[in-house]
Amino acid sequence: MGFWAKVKDFIFGAPKLMTDVFDKDSGLLVKAGGFIDGLSYTDQEKAKAFADLAKAVSDHIASTLPESTERSVTRRSIAVLWIKVQLWLILMVAIVIPFNVKLAEWYFKLATCEVMLWGTASIIIFFFGAYAWGAHIKKNGDTPK
Asked: Structure pTM?
């Protein structure tokens, strides 16, 4: 038997060794981690760390709330502008078709091009999909998980 076969059998063939090294509660790796930078926490230290984290997260949310509101307003105004352009193009088709069929075809192709349709569908799904999902949750009493 070669050297590497013995090493392989030593590491992978011994379930006791695997348990001693990799056990999540009392394995050697966990014990070694406890000595590095004081990573062994008591339950009280964990609770304090979570409380500090919760305070930091709430402070961050409070400090970035105006920025989030500004982004939300910007998103909504862009979405409204996109829908207005889409409806304007469709209206132009109806207005121009009696006078210039070629120009009406151009407006129609522009209004129904893939970019315009996907953009409009995305906006509709984003705004009304969230409303529909919320109404579904409210109706059925479900809570998102």
From this structure: 0.46
Distance CA(88)–CA(69), nearest Å, equals 28
* 99 located within any domain: yes
**In whole angstroms, what is the distance from residue 64 CA to residue 70 CA?**
10
> Per the domain annotation, does 122 fall within a domain?
yes
DSSP 54-97: HHHHHHHHHHHHHHHHHHHHHHHHHHHHHHHHHHHHHHHHHHHT
**Phi and psi at residue 21, to the nearest 5°:** -85, -45
What is the residue range of 74's domain? 70-145
Domain contains 7: no
Neighbours of 132 (CB within 10 A): 11
In a domain, 127, yes or no: yes
Task: Return the top range by mean pLDDT from 35-39, 123-127, 131-135.
Answer: 123-127
Per the listing, tokens 């999540």 go with 24
Output the pLDDT for position 57.
Answer: 76
CA–CA dist 68, 62 (Å, integer): 10
In the chain, the number of structural domains is 1
- 122 vs 46 pLDDT, higher one: 122
